[in-house]
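Sample intake sheet
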Amino acid sequence: MSSIQTIEEFIPLPLGKTFVRWDFIPQIRNDNPSTKVEEDSSTPLSLPTDDPPLLFMLHGATVPNWQFDDIVEELLGNSTHEVYRILRMDLYGHGQSARPKDVRYNLNLFVEQVLDVLGALNLLNDDINSGKKRLVGIGHSMGSAVLSAVASSTTTTRSTVFQQLILVAPMLDYITLNPHSRLLNIPIVGENLMQYAIIPKLKERRRQRYGAIGKAELGERFVKDIEYTAMSSGDNDDDDDDELTFDDVLLRMFRHGAVGDQSEVYQSLGDVMQSSSSQRSIKVHVMHGSNDTVANGKQIEQIIGMLGKKMECSTEQRRWNTFDCNACFGNGRTNNDELDRTNHLEERGVTYTELDGLEHNMLLSHPEVCANIMSSFLLMSDANH
């Protein structure tokens, strides 16, 4: 069992601080045995040429970066060497990142925040751009839409910053699935609905769902996170009056379209994937639970269609197989019943896994299964690179 080292820091950005977290297995490098990363260093972290792939994980709406804790443990904790290095962050309005007031909480806000963070950490440099260093995006729910937009937006002047994308329960259009949420657009009505109905229900639902998977402590952690303010944390400075409450953040996300229709995002990514002028193709894997009601099967099919829409491919040409991650790993892990029932679709550069019986919180309920699929996809991408 390897010892995972964690470094947490805040990156100052124009709209406020952004919380980031690094997880990695320490190792001594042959070229400089004294090389180490200082927690209080003001120098942006960079990747030496012999670094393993960097996995950039981005959470969805409401739950911040800690939703990946168990996935990180599965990916790194059972390794005897540094297979991956992992970077996470909290989007604006979530976790420990700022909750700026005078902004529109749409997808573009989060896309720009991600690009600002990657730039501050020197991860938009020529080595990443040329493929000498490998950056993999892993998004959950709304985070999948954000990373898809980042991937397509970084191809305008150069090849994409991500070589692979793993979209876990990707969100397409939450508002269409919940038409009553349009009431939030009505002034005063929306504020009252959010404060007195939606937020209390959200807290209750998180407590119930986390309790049902044996992780009741996460329910209280979630409540603490959304009630977090700079004043309550003791981190009160001159900018405290410019911070929103989480109720206001979530209301703006509904009103400004962050959880609305993201069809254009996936269509743009599909254009990039199928463009003959792209300097480097993007491999995408979509993971979805059959019991997911937040990102349901119909919308997942729509996303896959958008990602491959340029290629003429009939239904009969699709290749469905049993997805045996254990065969891809060779790492001694035992196979899982869930994996035995997993279907694998390889079509037009998009692979797809549907996990029987799993829900939207699969990263927390079945981290080993999800980590196995992620690792298998990355290893297969290595083999075909």
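Comment: Strands lie at 5-13, 16-24, 54-58, 85-89, 135-140, 164-168, 283-289, 319-322, 343-347, 350-355. Residues 189-212 form the longest helix (24 residues).
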